[in-house]
């Protein structure tokens, strides 16, 4: 019988943290995670897949989702390094530099284009605070970000930040992420660059 991890009513990143704690406490086994929103559901599914667990969305009803995850004994989940030898870029503003807003907007557009054309690209590009404006409808850098994503960069926008700016339904490129994943990506990266 699987353990029930009831995450209804918990705010990001608590559902992922509760799931992680449970699976770290066992060598192998199954867990049934219950969440009450789509973002938490997606975060749990991504986390379990990234770590190497078998995962399945079992049902969606009455405002909640039921997810079954299975940790197998041979899974060497603790040995996984997502960003070994990689760079994570953290962008916390929609402008590049301080001073003129107009110039900052032009510089960010130029920077993103140059980055998308560069030989080496970051494994992860994380958008926080007003940086999430760059990944949403109306952004002037969507083409560059789409190209970076197609070339292999993980584009992650902070869900709390998208909520704050009322932009969650306007995300155009990348995925909605949570602070737990953001901390993990930054911590596992050889280099983290903040703009």
Automatic annotation (TrEMBL):
This is Sulfur transfer protein SirA. The lineage of its organism: Bacteria, Bacillati, Bacillota, Clostridia, Eubacteriales. CDD domains: SirA_like_N (cd03421). InterPro entries: DsrEFH-like, Se_metab_YedF, Sulphur_relay_DsrE/F-like, TusA-like, TusA-like_sf. Belongs to the sulfur carrier protein TusA family. Coiled coil: none annotated. Pfam families: DsrE (PF02635), TusA (PF01206). Residues 5-29 form the UPF0033 domain. Gene3D superfamilies: TusA-like domain. It comes from the Bacteria.
